[in-house]
Amino acid sequence: MKNKEWEGTEVDLSCAIQIVKYLEDVFCYSDKLLLRCVYTAVTELLSNISHHAYAGKTIESTESLWKVAIYRQSNNFISIVIEDYGITIPLSIITKLNLKPDNGVEYNDTQLIEEAIYQKNTAFTEGRGQGLKSITRNVDEGYIKNFVIRSRDGYFKYKEEPLISQLSDIDRSTGTSIEIIIPGVQK
To answer: How many domains does the chain have?
Structure first.
């Protein structure tokens, strides 16, 4: 069930503060480390929208360029979904690095998303930060339960836990949807 939504025509990092405040006020979150992880993840993802999804383009739009929604899942987990309507993660990597098939090897979209996160191939590291990887560290530390990305034809799910993802049935031919799942507050 969708609880709250934010959207905008310009990337506005104050949205991350509003999300944390909403989690505190509506869902009674008080774990400062978890809230800091959420704030950091949301600011990173919103920054990625301005740096990558619309990079190099003059945007004069009255339509929303991004959206953040909070969902309460039936299992008491909370999903925070960040979406943009720009170029996808795979296309961003291909464009920035002028990537062409090497020795007949082509990368599929899921592999390109994984490279954006893990940066195993040094050809992909130029111009890439550590933001997406930092979110996986927060999953490893248990603050965030899972991290899911759907971009173009690619689908990445950090953990294969049986958590419900809001992104499992979304088709993203344009733009990117990223979901972070956090544990619900036990009352």
So the answer is: 1
> Which string of DSSP letters, residue by residue, matches the chain?
-EEEEEEESS--THHHHHHHHHHHHHH----HHHHHHHHHHHHHHHHHIIIIISTT-----SS-SEEEEEEE-TTS-EEEEEEE-SS-HHHHHHHHTT---BTTB---HHHHHHHHHH--SGGG-TT--SHHHHHHHHHHTTSS-EEEEEEETEEEES---S---TTTT--EEEEEEEEEEEPPPP-
Taking only the tens place, the pLDDT of each residue in 53-87 is: 876 666 666 678 899 999 998 888 999 999 998 88
The verdict on residue 173 lying in a domain is: yes
Give the global pTM: 0.85
Residue 187 belongs to some domain of the structure: no
151 in any annotated domain = yes
pLDDT in tens, 91-150: 777 776 666 655 555 778 888 888 888 876 655 555 555 678 889 999 999 999 999 999
Structural domain harbouring 81: 2-182
